[in-house]
Amino acid sequence: MTSDQRLSVALHALQHLYRGKQPKTSEALGSLLKTHPVVLRRTFAGLREAGLVRAVKGHGGGWSLSRPIDRMTLRDVYDALGILPRFALSRPRSRSGCALERASDEAVASASSEAQALLLNRLGAVTVFRLLEVARTKKGA
Prior knowledge:
Blueprint (H helix, E strand, L loop, with lengths): L5 H15 L5 H8 L3 H13 L3 E4 L5 E4 L8 H8 L17 H26 L3 H13 L1
Antiparallel strand pairs: 1-2
Helix pairs in contact: 1-3, 2-3, 4-5
């Protein structure tokens, strides 16, 4: 199974848009991130629909932030990318009629739902700006 790199790519791209202050084309960002411009455009499609970035056409155009980065949470980005949780504890409901299997399925489904809610809650408490600040601090350490 390959890991989903969209969150990392999106966060790095948002960092460059924030720090650059000028719109950047997919090609310019692709060069900075060592990522194909088409991958960036696909990644930005969800971010644009969520109102996190916008595309400016024409000379001097490119991608720019639509919302201040200190009002953009990790959950906003996560949701915009449509990323599924890394844990998939629940499985299809048993059709065997076994009471133990049904009880087990219900317990696992409940735990999975609670874990997903906790994950989304925690992601909603972290702004992208805060992540950038933490990364900057760690880089200097």
